[in-house]
Hints:
The structure holds 2 protein chains of 2 kinds.
Chain A lengths: L4 E4 L2 E4 L2 E5 L3 H10 L3 E3 L23 H13 L5 E4 L9 H13 L4 E4 L2 H9 L6 E3 L8 H9 L2 E5 L6 H10 L3 E7 L14 H15 L12 E5 L6 E5 L13 H6 L4 E4 L6 H19 L3 H13 L14 H4 L22 H8 L1 H4 L2
Parallel strand pairs in A: 3-4, 3-12, 5-6, 6-7, 7-8, 8-9, 9-12
Antiparallel strand pairs in A: 1-2, 10-11
Helix pairs in contact in A: 1-2, 1-9
Chain B lengths: L1 E6 L2 H9 L4 E5 L10 H13 L3 E6 L4 H17 L2 E5 L2 H7 L5 E5 L22 H11 L7 H9 L4 E5 L8 H6 L3 E5 L1 E7 L4 H5 L17 E4 L6 E5 L2 E6 L3 H9 L4 E5 L9 H14 L1
Parallel strand pairs in B: 1-2, 1-12, 2-3, 3-4, 4-5, 5-6, 6-7, 7-12
Antiparallel strand pairs in B: 8-11, 9-10, 10-11
Amino acid sequence: MAGxxxxxxxxxxxxxxxxxxxxxxxxxxxxxDAGADEVYCAVQIPEIxxxxxxxxxxxxxxxxxxxxxxxxxxxxxxxxxxxxxxWPYMIDRIEKxxxxxxxxxxxxxxDALIIGDFGVLSxxxxxxxxxxxxxxxxxxxxxxxxxxxxxxxxxTRVILERQLRLSEISNIxxxxxxxxxxxxxxxxxxxINGSCHLYHYHYYYNIEKLRRAMKKSxxxxxxxxxxxxxxxxxxxxxxxxxxxxxxxxxCCVCKLPELIKTSVNSLKIEGRTTTVxxxxxTTRVYRELLDLLSKRRMKEFNKKIHxxxxxxxxxxxxxxxYWSQEELLCSHRRCYFGSFTHAPYKLPLSWQTWTxxxxxxxxxx
Amino acid sequence: xxxxxxxxxxxxxxxxxxxxxxxxRFGSEFCMxxxxxxxxxxxxxxxxxxxGKEFMYVVPRLSDNTLTKIQKHLAFLNQxxxxxxxxxxxxxxxxLNKYTNLQPHLGRQLVYIPARCPWGNPAEFNVGFxxxxxxxxxxxxxxxxxxxxxxxxxxxxxxGADIDFIPQCLPHFGFIVRNGINLSVHLHxxxxxxxxxxxxxxxxxxxxxxxxxxxxETVAFRMKxxxxxxxxxxxxxxxxxxxxxxxxxxxxxxxxxVSEIVITMNPLTGIASHQELNTFIKDTMxxx
Lengths: 365, 288
């Protein structure tokens, strides 16, 4: 469906491509069939497979043969396969494995490399790989100057940081000559991805013993944890169980018309670590909604959005023992492009404390 | 080894000037909503210059709107003379190329260090001894421990970089210095994660970030989760972990030819006056 256009005011705007995550051939086939325009994946690098930062091995396709099968299937359906090589930093010790890895992947005919570090970029350039380069969110692109900088370095697409507003995205698209991609669904990062060191994999490993000892399950990611907060400047000021980092699963279904208006080129769904069901479900929902928008069937679009918000089981059949649709889409009734003050906790401050913080120039000497 | 002080506002800057530090950094390191006005920058520069200390302007990650504002600041500084600017944003680094008198210095957010993670290193995983050793060697390096990366940044005029004080990373600092990058090492606080949608402002009930009353200048919290066990610190839009330096560690910094150590004045470090700064500096110098 990529390449369709809609009229926005007096402008003709292209329907953005839909980019979906996969982590296996089985998933790849299903996601392609569900209507993705592009599928992105990573492949395990054998020599450094034990060195894990953000995600475990479950987020990666296990070998190059499987990647080859994915690429063949995707290409036969007109779907592109960008490869994630967004290693956040590069050092001598992993240079050789990365070079070998890039060669192997390019030989499998992947369509682009998603890169998140200047060291990896310099390796890719040294190797003279004839392949488009996409700048990962690890580059933390939050303004037009960054996009222009990355364009000068040879990137043909930039994936913007999640925390931008729609007006800012629109401004960046207006000033850029290359493709712009935005994240629309998934993970629930409340922090800037490229500078976050709350490695989920480490976290899981370190709390695993604790989890077993306590015989209970702990929160999904460290940024969803509840913390007791102690004011460092007032010994007796304490707030209990505050999910202060405010991470939540986000979706953008109802913001799709506005996102299209920004003229972004690609919409990306997160979820390489999730199940095939999730990858297919999200792809299918967004595909259906984008198709309705491209055909200007707004009435049906609004009806679907209403159904999603109501958690209608008819919109997409949810397997048993899995999240309900309500949890998959619009789960917290909060949008990622919404106001930052829509926190899931009530303000725990007493009115005296609030006044003190708010009018500190009055209270302080 | 010089001692620099990071001051976010004029009040802090005036305290820093009275102290025995040699360099003063002015500006916001992490929050685009705390960028000073041009008048404040002008005053900060003049005050620092008249005190004989070296001035560095610090720029956080930026949106298009804030970058426009920063460009006016850079144009002003460029007229004055040669000034170092610590940038934490690639767009700002790109823009700096236009200003011939300004020297780019990489901020902490443009240097990737996996060891900032608060949960130890991956060598604790269930893998064999030799693999553990191999992993450890990778984990404690930084994005500047790769010659092509250094070459790339030097091609943009970068001569120095900010880095965190993580004892296990110290042996790798030498490589960076030998390759022509002057290192400034931040003491006390390691930024674990940053956000634009400020966690502290939201918690304290700020309505919009544009009109934030900047509670982070006076309030900071210790974050504790019993299940997690680790203690983190919340200072504005950044979650830090604390790293208190030992005497021998400070001595080692000197051995690795680090050019500057940086002390931040904020509610988390508890350093707010020139007396506190002087006490800290005196202790640090004695340690050397």
